[in-house]
Design goal:
The protein has two domains: 17-251, Type I PLP-dependent aspartate aminotransferase-like (Major domain) (Aspartate Aminotransferase, domain 2); 253-371, Alpha-Beta Complex (Aspartate Aminotransferase, domain 1), CATH 3.90.1150.10. The chain is built from twelve helices and 13 strands. The protein has helices at residues 17-29, 36-49, 60-70, 88-95, 114-118, 140-150, 201-210, 240-251, 253-270, 297-309, 337-345, 357-371, and strands at 53-57, 78-82, 99-103, 125-128, 153-157, 165-166, 169-170, 177-181, 194-198, 275-276, 283-285, 293-294, 346-347. The longest helix has 18 residues, at 253-270.
């Protein structure tokens, strides 16, 4: 078997001297669990996204679950969510005992729309949870108007939002609750991590309690010596080591977005035989959390096999929820044609913070060489 001249992982993270120094600084401080560094990270996040509160948690899934709990969503409630999403969105609804109601997505922008969600609303609908996909944004104003009209909760799964702009401004300065992720593949990462953003002071306080087993306040020998628990919660705490890394990553987010846009342009210009995600008019900057291209489903697996054989890693983001082995038993008889089309045709080549533009050009060269031979 021929050995590839170059191997590229799908989303290589970038860790420089600053991240290592930040982690060591926390270790040397003697306090490595959630503390001062996390408070500083939350302050910097709220300032960047122009939101009153950022409540950092141990991962994006925890942030979703905590948001649902904080908004009082549970058994008997319906939550409308796109089927075309990373599985954590739907699983978080199941985790609180609520019922996910699946909606379709737009075939060009890949995100769900207020119109597609509206047709799923019933008297049992308690919340809607639209999802930003690959950095492509939902129409937040449209969803806020829908939520207000129907008097239901809006929670945006914005795991892919950081670095985007909505109507000319940094995306995230919203009136509704939204969550994000700092997973290893994201633009700004803490290895694992997430956060909930809100302008509601009481909701932020409740979220802080939920992430700490429902404790009324952090342990303090003078103020909370008995570990008082005033609400239901779980352990969703992050460590100060991760928060310190996140602060460094956040400081270079603008440079990261610039690189990813350059890489995406190389992909689009170099592989015009494929279809790509359309950026809607309301979105004025795309961060490209991942880069997707739609491939003839009859040729996709052969392309994938040859790319991997040539040292280029890939992902399929994602198999739509109602076609997943487990979830197909929960959502029987559902037909969502756009989500199914995306599931059948999606292919995501490498795009990571530690890649170079030459790496991107190499992927284009490999793909075009393979594609020309596929019948």
């Amino acid at each position: 078997m021929e050995v590839p001249s170059k191997k590229l992982s799908w989303s290589p993270p970038r860790f420089d001297k600053e991240e290592k120094e930040a982690a060591i600084r926390v270790v040397n401080s003697g306090w490595v669990t959630q503390g001062r560094e996390t408070k500083a990270f939350e302050k910097e996040l709220s300032e960047y996204f122009r939101v009153r509160h950022a409540v950092v948690m141990n991962n994006g899934t925890s942030a979703l679950i905590a948001s649902l709990i904080a908004h009082g969503i549970g058994p008997g409630d319906e939550v409308i969510v796109p089927s075309y999403t990373f599985i954590a969105t739907v699983n978080s609804i199941l985790a609180v005992g609520a019922k996910p109601v699946l909606a379709d997505s737009d075939p060009e922008t890949w995100v769900t729309t207020p119109e597609l969600v509206k047709e799923k609303i019933t008297g049992r609908t308690k919340a809607i949870m639209p999802v930003d996909v690959g950095g492509g944004l939902i129409d937040s104003d449209g969803f806020e108007a829908l939520a207000q009209e129907k008097n239901i909760t809006l929670i945006e799964d914005a795991a892919h939002l950081p670095g985007a702009k909505y109507k000319g401004k940094i995306a995230g300065s919203y009136n509704h609750t939204w969550t994000t992720s700092f997973h290893m593949a994201k633009l700004a990462l803490t290895i694992e991590g997430g956060a909930v953003f809100t302008n509601d002071d009481k909701l932020a306080e409740l979220l802080s309690q939920i992430r700490n087993h429902g404790m009324s306040a952090p342990y303090d020998v003078h103020k909370n010596i008995h570990y008082d628990y005033t609400t239901f919660g779980l352990n969703f705490r992050i460590t100060d080591i991760q928060s310190a890394i996140g602060r460094v990553q956040l400081s270079r987010l603008e440079d990261t977005v610039k690189f990813r846009n350059q890489a995406a342009r190389i992909y689009m210009d170099g592989m015009p035989q494929f279809r790509f995600q359309k950026t809607p008019e309301y979105q004025t900057r795309h961060p490209y959390m991942f880069f997707g291209m739609l491939v003839n489903p009859n040729k996709r697996m052969q392309l994938i096999q040859e790319m991997v054989r040539n040292g280029v890693d890939i992902r399929i983001c994602w198999r739509t929820t109602h076609l997943q082995p487990y979830h197909s038993q929960l959502f029987k008889g559902i037909s969502l044609p756009n989500s199914e089309m995306l599931s059948d045709t999606m292919l995501c080549p490498p795009l990571g913070n530690d890649m170079t533009l030459d790496d991107t050009r190499h992927v284009v060269e490999v793909v075009n060489k393979i594609w020309g031979k596929i019948k």
